[in-house]
Amino acid sequence: MTKSATNLPAGPLKTIVFDMGNVLVFFSHDRMCRQIGKLCGCSGDEMRVQLLESGLQWEFERGLIDEKILHMRLEEIFNCRIDLAALCRATADIFTLNDTIVPVLDELKHRGLRLVLLSNTCRTHVQFIREHWDFLDRFDQLVVSYEVGAIKPEDAMYRAALNAIECRPEEALYTDDIAPYVAKGRSFGLNAAVFTTTEKFLADLRDYGIEIDAPGCRDSEYPGRSVSS
């Protein structure tokens, strides 16, 4: 058994719960800060302080503010005028698809498993992703922070996930690239495994009796996949 997986469930898995960032898509906060900083006339480092370290981005991802309020806040902070559409592009054009995971999603759906997304994200990011790729169409339900009004690892996100899986927690497997989030999932009774690569996730699935060898699902077939910066 891989080190990150919990004890084997009593029965077969019925649902797989996926994180999105650095699992289904790779992303770069550095790139986001540089792009928004360019619009506001500041450095990426300064934007990181004002956007991430201040907690403004997390307000956005909690759904406490929308893109229009974010736009207004940034104009106030930097005493500048920003085109709203340009801001949305700068905020969201930070993703690269993890090509190797898509065949896995397809095979899991083919086998009748329920797929649930559990992601800290914002509406702007989800809209951008839907415009560029169709992998979210494979999911039966999206549990996203801006709709729940909370972010992982807060309890509300995991309670929402339990409502979405439509099975017992021990019949679901949750994968996320952030170990504390995985640990929190386990505390809610979910089987859980830290995501590092698609190949490692395939090994985790084998621990639960799911063998997948779909074309294109091996990381070695897509060399150089990493978070862009």
Automatic annotation (TrEMBL):
Keywords: Hydrolase. CDD domains: HAD_sEH-N_like. It comes from the Bacteria. GO terms for molecular function: hydrolase activity. The keyword Cytoplasm does not apply. Gene3D superfamilies: HAD superfamily/HAD-like, Putative phosphatase, domain 2. InterPro entries: HAD-like_sf, HAD-SF_hydro_IA, HAD_sf, PGP-like_dom2. Signal peptide: none annotated. This is Putative hydrolase of the HAD superfamily. It comes from Planctomicrobium piriforme.
